[in-house]
């Protein structure tokens, strides 16, 4: 198993930043290293051949990003979180607005977006909600748009759905099986727009009532987490909600005092100050 030192990781992240304008310089070094090593192993590359490929073969950047930003995800992950969404957070938003906007930041292959759409459909309000789902990786966004997942993943998704206590008899009510895949009803995505957006370098592009960015910032170092949280703060309406991953926290962040904790267990916060 080959290794890679900090100097080489810096060379790789600098090259990507200068040539392609993707900024991984503030990613948590351990996870960046782990993922780069996996790419080198998969593609049978050394540090030098990886740098050469990134320099000489611009299309390779998409493959590289695909591997680098891969996030393991599932539907109705942490069912208790989704119950709190259904029973507390969404009803609280609806006290003030019949129609509202949700941003799924770092949406990966779309399971979380699909989860949200199924939940909103079961609440009878899917048509009133605008959802924007963003990711850095264009390949994974294309995959997310298809709402198609291997049937082998559905056992875990179904278990989560049962623990969520959804109102359908089964997730099977929402998809058909074809060639070993579960193909979900496209109407679920009628109000979803998928967009390429870079959390590190991207602009603020809208105002939202709810922002979900779960298990993404875990890969960022502290200063980058701070930057991204500042972006989320500016992207939220006053009294809007932010949900982050169960292993993530706002506590030490510069913007922490502009939020209150709504649910510490599920890591849900509410913006109280502009």
UniProtKB/TrEMBL annotation:
Molecular function via GO: S-adenosylmethionine-dependent methyltransferase activity
Domain CheR-type methyltransferase as annotated: residue spans: 1-274
Gene3D superfamilies: Vaccinia Virus protein VP39
Alphabetized SUPFAM superfamilies for the sequence: Chemotaxis receptor methyltransferase CheR, N-terminal domain, S-adenosyl-L-methionine-dependent methyltransferases
InterPro entries: Bact_Chemotaxis_MeTrfase, CheR_C, CheR_MeTrfase, CheR_N, SAM-dependent_MTases_sf
Lineage top rank: taxon: Bacteria
Name of protein: Protein-glutamate O-methyltransferase CheR
